[in-house]
Design a protein that fits this description.
single chain; 6 helices; 4 domains; alpha+beta; 13-stranded mixed β-sheet; Elongation Factor Tu (Ef-tu), domain 3; Phage tail protein beta-alpha-beta fold
Length: 323
């Protein structure tokens, strides 16, 4: 792996790869903003080290690439700004935390009205923030006029795509692919391997919960008149009734919108694996784990990649998609 530092004030560029004692690259579907953190040598009283270690300040740019001999050589995995530091006066290390450019969208609020498809809203906002465009999946549906008050720009994009998903029946996520802004369908990118407990897995856990369950949805029109009911009879019989009301939305199919409100058993599967940079949140992977009794296609909801010395491990949380 290769880590480059660009000083925003001077334009100087440094290769800091060999100055780091450890580094971590992480992300999640829910948060969207990816983070890169690293520990750098700190020896303030050692003149020789001071001469080779560049001074890093808030706002400097950090780029994280794959190795030149990797399957996709020199691929830009992360591109973001130093957002915070943790410094000690004595010998040891300094910790730096970097966030990608979705952080600007997640921290900037506005009041906006849009009358455009979700993909047009996303492209407009990304262009406004000067982001390069990558893959922005089209939904092919109109979400009508939408008013957003006291919302961050990232929330606007997420809510627009969520509304479109009520018609398409799909779920979407926002992500920076290196320095490119992307919106993709969850699981659209499938990692072309099958994860097997006998080969790849260092450790695994399996947890289930019904705390967020919804197994019946009562559908009402905008005047509060009951129209129909959507339910999962099997879940009701097994766990009892968990009910929710849904008001029909303009430009959204009633049945599709109501069905999207149903929520079954939450299954959280955590794997600690031999390191692999292809395991990103939002992507899907096939799993065969006899120990946990798992076989199927799963969505990666969280990923954490850690390099420490010669060791590289990846931790992922998975959500079941299909058998």
């Amino acid at each position: 792996m290769r880590i480059m530092l660009n000083k925003t004030m001077t334009g100087e560029t440094f290769d800091i790869t060999n100055l780091l004692t450890s580094y971590t690259w992480t992300g999640s579907v829910e948060r969207a903003v990816r983070e890169f953190s690293f520990d750098m040598i700190n020896a303030p009283y050692d003149k020789e080290i001071r001469e080779i270690v560049p001074q890093i300040t808030i706002g400097d740019i950090v780029s994280f690439y794959t190795d030149s001999d990797y399957a996709v050589p020199n691929y830009l995995l992360f591109y973001g700004k130093v957002a915070s530091t943790g410094r000690r006066s004595r010998r040891g290390t300094i910790t730096y935390n970097c966030l990608d450019f979705l952080n600007n969208l997640s921290k900037s609020e506005t009041n906006r009205t849009f009358d455009a498809p979700a993909e047009s809203i996303a492209i407009s906002i990304a262009s406004e923030f000067g982001l390069q465009l990558g893959a922005v999946v089209p939904t092919g549906v109109s979400i009508g006029k939408s008013v957003f008050e006291d919302k961050t720009y990232l929330e606007i994009i997420n809510e627009a795509y969520k509304k479109a998903g009520l018609s398409t029946g799909k779920s979407y996520y926002v992500q920076m692919d290196g320095d490119k802004f992307c919106v993709l369908e969850e699981g659209q990118v499938e990692i072309p391997v099958t994860l097997k407990d006998t080969i790849d897995v260092i450790d695994s856990t399996f947890d289930e919960s019904i705390t967020e369950m919804v197994n019946r949805v009562n559908v009402y029109d905008s005047d509060g008149i009951f129209k129909t009911r959507i339910e999962n009879a099997e879940l009701i019989a097994r766990f009892g009734l968990f009910e929710k009301n849904y008001t029909i939305e303009k430009d959204v199919d009633m049945t599709t919108g109501a069905t999207k409100q149903l929520h079954g058993v939450d299954t959280v599967i955590r794997f600690t694996l031999l390191g692999e940079v292809n395991y990103w949140s939002g992507r899907s992977i096939r799993v065969w784990d006899e120990g946990l009794g798992l076989a199927g296609k799963f969505l990666i909801t969280n990923d954490t990649h850690t390099w420490s010395g010669a060791n590289y491990t990846t931790q992922v949380n998975l959500k079941f998609m299909s058998l």
